[in-house]
Structures are given as C-alpha cells and as structure tokens.
Amino acid sequence: MIKRAAALLLLTIIGGIFFTLLTGYSADENLNLTAQYYAENTAKDIGAANIVTAIIVTYRGLDTLGEVTVLFLAAAIVGLVLARSRGAGAAQTVKAPVGELLTTGSHSLLPLILLLGIYIFVNGHLTPGGGFQGGAVVASAMLLLLLANPVKRFNHRLISIIESFSGFSYVVIGVLGLLLAGGFLDNRILPIGEFGQLFSAGAIPLIYSLIGLKVGAEFSSILSNLSEAEEL
Amino acid sequence: MIAQLAMATGFALILIGFYGALTNRNILRMIVAFSVANTGVHLVLVAVGYMNGRTAPILDSAVSATEAVTRIIDPVPQALVLTAIVIGMGVTALMLAFAYKLYEKKRSLDIGKFTELRW
Amino acid sequence: MVSAVYIIIAALAAAFILGFLKEQWRGLAYVITLAALAFMSWVSAGWVWALGWQGAEAVDILTAGTEPPFAINLRMGLPEAVLTLLVNLTGLLSALYLKEVLFRLGRRSLVVLLIAIMALSGIILTRDIFNLFVFFELVVISTGGLILLSDDVQSNSRALSAGFKYLIASQIISVLLLVGIIFAYHATGTLNIDGMAGADLMALQGGVIAFFLMFIAIVAELKPFPANGWALDIYESAHPAFSAIFSAATGAAALYAVDKLLLIGGVSWLPVATAIGIVTFVVSNTLALSQSNDRRLLGYSSIAQIGLVFTVLGQRDILGDDYYYIAFGVLIAHAVGKAGLYWLSGLVAGRGLTDWSALRGHPLLIFAFLTFVFLLVGLPPFPGFYAKWELARYLAAEGRLALLALILFGALIEAGYLFRWFGYIIKRERPAQGVVSDPLKQVVIFAAVVAGWAMAFLWGELSGRANLLLALPLLFALAFLLLEWLPAWFKNIVAISGLVGYFAMTYTEYDPLRLIFIIIFTLGGALTLLASFHTSGKRIGFYPGAMLMYAGLVMLIRATDSFDFFAAWELLTIGSYFLILRGKHSEPHALSYAIFSLAGAFSILAGFALAADGAVHFTIQSLSEVATPLAPWVFILLAVGFMTKTAAIGLHIWLPGAHAEAETDVSPMVSGILLKAGLYGLMMLMLGMGIQELHGIKLNYVMLWIGALSALLGNLMAIFEEDAKRLLAYSSIGQMGYALFGLALMNHLGWLMALMFVINHYIYKSMLFMSVGGVAKRTGTRDMYRMGGLITLMPLSFIAVMIGIIAVSGVPPLSGFGGRWIFYNAIMSSEYRLPMLIIFLSVPVAFLYLFRLIHTIFLGQLKDEHRRIKEAPFWLILPQMIYVACLLVFALVPGIALRHVDRYLNDFFPNGGLGWDGLLITSQYGYWSPINIMIIIGVIFMLLFFWLLFVNRKAQKVKQFNIVFSAERPYRPETTHFAWNFFAPYRKALGFMVQPFVTLFWNTITDFLHAAANLVRRLYTGNGQTYAYHLLLFVVVVFFVRMGV
Amino acid sequence: MSALILAMVVLLAVVLIGAALVAIKGKSLPIAILSAGLVSLIASVLFLVLAAPDVAMTEAAIGSGLTTFLFFFVLSRVRGGEND
Known about the structure:
By secondary structure, chain A is mainly α.
C-alpha cells in the first residue's frame, strides 16, 4: 500500500514536470533551422524523396549504424545466453506438428512476404518504410515458418554470415564515403542519379538494403534463439 | 491541438508504464510496463515534431522539392523515433533474455526474490 | 593522424568480421579482437601525442559530408584523446585479462566487449545529443551482456539479478533522456551539443525542464547517491575485469558526457552538479566503511570517486585553465587505481577483505596494491595529489570552504578504509587459498602499475612545480624497492651511507635552525639505523618505508614552497605509517596513526590553501604576509596539523600504541626523529606568523595551555603504565608538551629551550627506546612487573637507561638539566603564570615514571625465567653507547649547537638571548657552567657511593629464593609483585585526570560514523524495483532543489 | 475534416490509455502482453494521423508485431513464473 502511495506521489510530481512541458509547448509555425535545411537540400544533395530516410541513412547515419549495432548486440547476447542455456544433452521435447493448412499456407505465403520485405527496403528512399521495416517484415516470414513448424531449426551459421556480411559491407561503404566523398557514411560515393528513381540517392538504396538484410537476420536470430530455448 | 493531445496521451502512457513497473512484482509484467512507457515516449517525440496542416516529409507528386519547406513537417523527430523504436526493441529483447535466465536460476519471476545482493 | 572515426570503424568492422568465423576458431577471433582494441588504443595514443605534445589543434570530424548541426559530428581534442585512450586501453587490458573467459564463451562475447568499448569511445567523441543517447544505449546493452557473461563465471544468479536491476534503471533513464532531448530540440532547433550551448537553452520556452531531464538522465549514469543500488550490485557480482571497465571506462565516459551537457546548461547548473557530487562522495565513502566484501567496497569507492570528479566538474567556473588538469588528475588516478584493484581482486580467491592477506607472500602484488591505493587516496607523487592541492587552492581562494572541508572529510574516510584494508593484508592470518597464479593477469595488473607511475611523472611535469618524482631523496627511497631482494645488512649499509652522504652533500645549505633538524634527520637517522644491523634476512618492506620517511623529512627541511612542504609532509607520514605497521600487534595503532596524520595533513593543506589565497606559488616565508581576517584561521589550521604530529593532548591517542608496538629499531625512529617534524612545522609557522589573535584571544596563549596540559597529562598517563615502551611513548607526549610550551612562549629563551628539547629528546628517547626494546627482546615481555634484577645481566642497557633518565628528568649534570635551566629562565621572563604552574607540576611527575624504568627493570629480584638472559645484541647496544657519549658531550659543551642557534634566533627574538662566554652561559637570572656542574655532581656522587659501600660492607647477602611463600599461590601472581600497579595511591588521587576522555571522544565519532553507515546502507534493499523508486526519488528531489533555488 | 480527425485522435487516445491500463493491470499475463501490443498498434495509427508513415510502419512491425512475439516466446518457456 505504501509502495503504491509512494509510486503515485513520485509519478504525480513527474507528471507535473511533464505537464509543465506540455503547457509550455507550442508547435512551430515554420520549420526550424535544421528541418529547413533538410527540406531544402535533401533532394539536391542526397537525392532521396523520403527525407526521413535521408536523415536516417545519411545525415544521422552514425545513429543508424549504432542502432543496427544495438540489434546486432542484442542478437549476439540473446544467442549467447540462450545457447548456453540449451546445454549439452538436454533433449528438446518434440511437439506435435501443427495442421496441414498452416504449413501449406505458410509455405506459399513465404515468398510473397519476403518479396514485400525486400520491396520495402529497396524503396526506402522513395516511399515510407526502409531497412528496418523491411527487415522486420522479412523476419516475420521466418516467424511464420517457426509458427508453422515449431521444431524447425534455422541455419544459425547462415544467419550469422548474412548478419556479418551486411554489417561489414555497411561499414565498408561508410569508409568509402570517408575516402571518396565528404565523410564517413556519405552516400555520394555513387551517383545521385535522377530524383525519384529506384537507382538514385547514391548509396542509400544499397545501405538500406544491407540494413534490411541485417535487421531481418538479427530479428530472425533473436526469434529463433528464443524459440529454441528450452521450456523451463 | 492534435499535437498536444497526442503528447498528453504519450505522457500518460509513460506515467502508466512507470506505475506498472513500480507496482508489479512480476518481472515479465515490469518489462511489459516498460514497453508501454516506451510507446508513450515515441508518441511524445512524434507529437513534438507535428505541425498542423502539413504533410509527411516525403517528396512526391503532391509535394515538390521546391515547396517542401512550407508543406512538410519536421522530419527529425521521426528519424529519432525510428532509432528509438529499434533500440527499445533491442533492450526489450535483452530484458526478456534476462527474465528467462532469472527464471532458470530461481524458478520464479518475482523481483523481490532476487535480493541476494544488497547493502 | 588517423581520423578518430576509425576507432568506431575498427571496432565495428572487427565485430562484424567475427561473425564470419566459425565458432571453433576462437584463437583467431581473439586475436582479431585484440588487434582491433590495440588499433583503437593506437589511434587514441597518436592523438594524445599530437594534441598534447606537438601542439596540434582539436579537429571536428564530419560524417555524411555535411556540416553540423545538420549531420552528426565527432570531436577529437585533448580531453577526448586522453579519455578514449583510457577507455581503449582499459578494454585492451581487460581483454587480455579475460583471455580464458573469452575463449570459453566464444566470439559473441568478443563482439559484446568490442562494442562496449566502441560505444564508450563514441560517448566521448560525439557532439550530438541524440547520438550520445544511442551510444549510451549501446553501453547499457553491452554492459547487460557483459554481466550475463559474468554470471557464467561464477555460476550463480547474483550477477544476473544485478544486470536486470541495471536494465530497469536504464529504461527509466532512457525515457527521461529522450523526452528531454526532444524538447531541447524543439526549443533550439538543433541536436548538436555546441549548437544547443550557443542557443541559450535556459532562456527558451521549456528549456530549463528539457535540460533538467537530459541532465538528470545522464547524471543517473554516474550512479549518484541514492540512485545507485544497481551499480553496487554490479560491482559486487560482475567479473572483476568487467567491473574494471565499468568503473574506469564507463565512469570516465559518463563524466565526460555530463561535462559536455554542462556546456548547454551553463553556470547555473554547476552548483547542482557540485551538490550531487559531494553528497555522493561523502555518503558513499561513509557507506564503504561498513563493507566487508572487497568488490562491493570497491564499488562504493568507485561511486564516491566519480562523485568527486563530478564535484570538480561543478567547480568549472573557478578552475580556469587548470580545470582539465584537476579533473583528469582525479579521474585518471581513480580509473587506473580502481581498474587495478579490480584486476587484482581476480587473483584473490576469497571475497572478504581479510582474505586479501593471501597477497602477503607476494611483495610485487603488495606493491601493486599500494600503488593503486596511493592513486585513489591521492598521495604523492600521484596525479590525485597534485589535483587535490590545486583544487584546494582554488576552493579556498573562492571561499568555498565548506565544500573543501567536505571533500577532505570524504577523502579521509576513504583513506581510512583503504589503509585499514592494507592493514588486513599485512597483518591478518593468511587464508588457506593463496593467490591465483596467472601470468597474463599479472601482466595486466603491472601494466596498470606502470601506467600509474607514468601518470605520476606526467602530472609532476605538467604541474608547473618541481616534479616530485625527480626529487633526489624520494628517488633514493624508491630505489630501495629495486633492492628488496638483497639481504638486510646490505640495504642497511646503503641506507646509512645515503643518509650520511646526503648530509655531507648539502650541509652547507642550511641556516642553523634547519641544520639542527637536518642533522637529527640524517645523521641521527643513520645512527638509529645502526640498530637495524641486528636483524637478519631480507626484511622486505622495511627499507622502502624507512627511507620514504627520511626522504620526506629531508624534503620537509629543504622545502621553501608550501607545495613542496606539504608533499614532503605526506611522504614522511606514509613512510612512517609503513614502519609502524611492521610491529607485531600494530595493525589498529598504525591505522589510527594514519588517520590522525592524514587528518592533520588535510588541515595543513587547508591552511596553506587559505593562506595562498589563489596564488600558485606560496612560499613558507610568505606566511608572514597573510592578511588579517584570514591569518588566525590559517594559523589554527596549520597549528592543528602540526600538533597532530607532535601528539598534543586531544590529538594524541594514536601515539602510545604506534610507538610502543613498533619494532625495536623503529620506535626510536618514529619517536626520536619523526616527532621533530611536527616541531619543525610549528617553528616555521610561528616564525612566519608570530602572535595571532582571534576574538581577542592570543593563539599562542592557547598553545601554551595545550603544551602545559600535554606535559602534565602525558606524564601522568606515563606513570600508570606497566608497559615499558608505552611508558616511554606517553612520556613523549609530555616532552613534546614542554617543547610546544617553549615555542608558545614566543620569546628567545622559550625557543632556545624548545630547540634544546629537539636535540635532547632525540638522543635520550632514541636511546631509551633502544635499551628498553633490547630488554623487551631478551625477556619477551614489555610489562615491567615481569622483569627485575636485570642489572647484572644487561649492564650496558642499564647504563644507557640510567643516563637516559637522568637526562630526561632534567637533574644535573646532564643536558636535560641545561634544557630545564633555560626553560626556567624562559618562563621566568614570561607573564603566563597559570600554565607555568602546571609545567612546574609536571616535572616531579616525570620523576615518578622514570625512576620505575631503573627500579623495576634493573633492580629488585631477577625472575627465575630470566636467569640465562644475555645482554642486548651488539648492534642495539652500539648506538646506545654513542648516545651516551653524545649526551655527555652535549652536557659539557651545549654551546656547540646552541650558540649558533641562539645567534640565529636573535633575528627573530632580539631580546633575552644568552651570553656565551667560553664554557660559561649566562642569562639575566644567573649563569650555567656545565663543566663545574659536572664536576660538583661527580664529586657528590662518588662521596655518596663510597659512603654507601662503607655502610653496607657488613650486609648479609640473601639468595633470591631465600624466602618462602606462606600461603597458596595467588590467582593472578603478578598482582603480588611489588611493581604491579606501583602508583596505586597516585591513581586514587589523580586518576580522574587520565580517564580516557579523549579516546572515548574519538571512539564515539568512529562508532557514530559506522552506525550511520549501517543505517543508511539498509536503503539498498537489493530489490530492483526499490532501486527504481530511489532513482525517481532522486529525480524529484533534484528537481525541487534546482527549481526551488 | 479537422474536427473529424480531432475526434478520431481523442478516440484513439482513450483506447490507448484503456489498453495501457489493461497492459499493466490485466489479470493474466497474456492479456497484458496483447494489450501492450495493442497499445503499439493503436499508436501506429496515431502516427499515421500525425503524418509519420515511417514511424507508423516501424511501430506496427517492430513494436506491436515482433516484440509481442518475443514476449510470447519467453512466456511459453517460463510457464510457472506467470503468476509470481
């Protein structure tokens, strides 16, 4: 009871702090300096229609690299932890396979979902969505497989190689930016191309695809590791 | 107005999430509560960048590059939220791994039972 | 220069490459990781070199080919270079240390380690607030991962729950941080830290709260009290190598993040930082007092140190150009010391503090331990020492005295528990499990040791002062560390020749006053060292300690600048601490000595800081120029510091144990020689500042009283002692009281007498300690009632003691009388009647205990078990005989030393000097002719002696056991000994004066601190949810404090 | 138009808070997890309203989709701990 009261009291005060922020807030009439720069220059400098993508992949590319690394790290840790939990001789209880319908359905859906994921991340610079969303969609295909066949084992080595390949390539492209263009993660190592086309915006489609691959691989790795974890 | 409303909802979610994390002893429930709070933060972030009557920061046939400055909303908070969402998911995954391991050790998810370390 | 962004690139590339490797290729994966970490360190080191030595400019590194604030930029300046080097090297060394663990866990654990280090570097380098958040989250996740890995190491759930607690806290932190960032962005339109700083966030709508949220979130990463339960649990449970990273590298990175953030907040947030920092520093150190688990103790200490650096960050407004010098001095000392101690803890099997006594058989590891402790406490010659000095200077100049006091108080507590720990190592029983032998781990530990000493040298070079590590005496003392493998006799020869040689080299450079002290310190020291020839073996630890003390003493005399003076003071304190600790039962006494001495030293530090009033160089001479409102306070602080060393009453409780428990040849050093340092300090002080008044009270009058009371009470306590060495120790308190009294008279004769005491006390106290020590060695006890009748067996010791007590008691014909004579002359010419009365009273009291030394030890009946005792060893007797000779010479011709001093004192006290006419000394009250007195006394003595022989010629000799016990054996036989409780009647009459009030007082303070620590630490319930409450409470409290202001 | 959107936002907000309350107070853990997923899902609708399609997609795919599955995977492996 005291605990609840204390929680309520503390949160009321923090709520008060938030309330001050809320009442003090007024939306900007015009874009601020930073946003204005992006609105004005993204198209000509970066060549991406989706400004959010331009920011994520290029202007704030370092954040995104960190973000990808977060996932990479989370996947590595989850893998490490759960791999050790599985232990040596512990036999997995074999579950009854799920129904025919789900199995067949998932197999026929799989390519479609994968395609959708790929579409999302290669078009990241043009339309909403990108590597993260596409990667999540790719992972959901894996999820579907898992649901359809709970004892399904993924090839961890393959996932790991995809993960590493895309991550390493990402870093290499970043370094190319440093060597060939204006700085680390500069997308202008490839021609900016014609605005609005698939192959435009320099290295953005490439980077976003790599991110998509990587994110997909990482999510898959986390999911499969969790699904393979022993029931306690 | 929409921005303020969304922002208020976001703050409410944060507080609700914190309350859940402070009062639920079950570790999984604490993690759930934090993910609610995180969603609240995302709402606040996006709401701060919102500008009435403007469109998403994507240049297409409707919004040309030249008039973007007057037509689109601030893209920066959105970029930040994207990052925050992914990071939040990473942290959640890690916490879940911890929960699993903690359960493995003690066969319990009561946070009050993991107090060997103190003082 | 290799761009700093390659630090990040290298780590990530290596981490991703590891994924290509097969799980089995562990060696390769490990090598790649090491190579990456080495490369990262190399890049940082290159920048440190370029920016620090070659004068390169700081560079901004753009990403995405776009100018900030539109893209993220990194900055590599000197602070960044140093910090990334610190982080990367910690990572590299920890990776080496963890070789076995990392091999077992495979490549994914390497990934986690690499990314953790990369993220820490990122925090340091980035200039973008959101990017900072991303790196912080990376640190959080990788820390969580590292903890999960630790869990496997110890196969328990402790580390696991600690990690989860950390994640709970970090979730709350990240929510607050994100909300803060977005509103700060909304207000300023930028995410760039420098941009925000330029936009004056505080003046903007919602800016203050936005900043508050960011600030509090990052500050929470510094583990401030009380929102730090999770951190403590991590420190306690994680693998020590991870704790090393967590403490040294994460702490440094988080501090730098706050430093950057404070650029945005501006000056108005500095007091908040100061308050949080100092509360954390003091409270955490206090809590550490009651810890018995080594790693948890180190955790509290880490948190405290980070708090201290945070306090320094809060002083940014006044530290000017020295800001980074001071902050980094404290920070690097902490990082190296703490990482080192954590690494060291991996070699110790047990987790209790006393289990560390396993180190005892490993001198090198003990040296490492001491290096780390010195770094943490901020002792010379390490960076923390310089930093502490400069910080005190600035704080005093700005009048932030309460803060200075709190810092020194916290530092004292820290020194207390660290030295207590060292005492355990040296003195406690060694556990069954020894030290884990792992060459690689030892290499890592010694890398930290080398780094610590390198930093010491560097900070000395940068200090703009004389580099302590280039001071010849100190180097000489340190050289003994390298000679430790040689036999003691050889080292003794080197030590003696060093002392004598140094005197021969420099004796022309001193004025008469200093010459007296330097003679006592060098030649006198050499003389006491003669006694050390009686020991055998290597005597590891003795010579470095002893020579450190002598080095400090010599440097003290040579110091002209207050800094050099203080450094020397600390050196001699530490050296003597090591010496005292060597005694068999000296653990608690050595600790109390260390604490009192350091407290005294801090008082001196504060005094000098106050006196300097911000001046960089402040000479001892300039004490005379200190302005009036400050002057009495400076005087008090310095006097208290010096009087701690002379064990003035009230500050004396450390002395009896320390002097009595010390080894036979150490007691003379710490009593006969070391106490003089305090007198020297007092002389310098009073020569400089003269008579000060505070609220109309003359301070020298107060000191007069203290001197008189010390003399009386010291002597009183001595008479009730059964322990011969303790008796001598209490007697020292009394003797120093006389000297203090003489100085406080502030006239010519008083000073002359004090100097007379300096010389006399050295000679007879050294001698008495040696002879009593020799007796104790032979009889195996220090209790006088267990001795008796030793005169026939140990005649030379008897002679020494007899001459000694004649000299001490001030009866003719020996030099003690000369001292007394000057003394009476001195007080006759002064107006202070009441304290004078007390001094008079204390003189006969001295007789009471002195006579017991002869009566109880050497006369009376020989104990049965002592029938076969031999004379004390030759090397103990030799110096005693030399002292006897000295006493006789000094008694005959006191003028050889005193007339020069007398003339010298004329400069300061022109009136009332003595007349030196050949062998005749005159004062305004009479004259003293030593030779005549000697002859007269000799004649009287001989007459009496022969008369006694004559009247006793027919006395019957009675065998010792020619008596019969008529009753049963008493329960405690010693109570029937005539010498037991010898002065019971006096105790009845005067005992109330020697009740241990002072001891009680200090014990109460200690108990109170411990009780408070035990109460407060209940706060840390171990429940992760409670810790979340603490965190939110912390947020709310800081909010109210800041907004209320 | 604007009033309609406003009404919709109000509605979404109410549902959001309701779902959030269920997420932290709900009787059974699966319901709590599902409600948390629902919070994310509704939030992603709100993001669309706030002209943030990228965020909406991400929140829907990651916040409400994958995260919810993660929870269930773990939940199914710590059966006994549900009610601690």
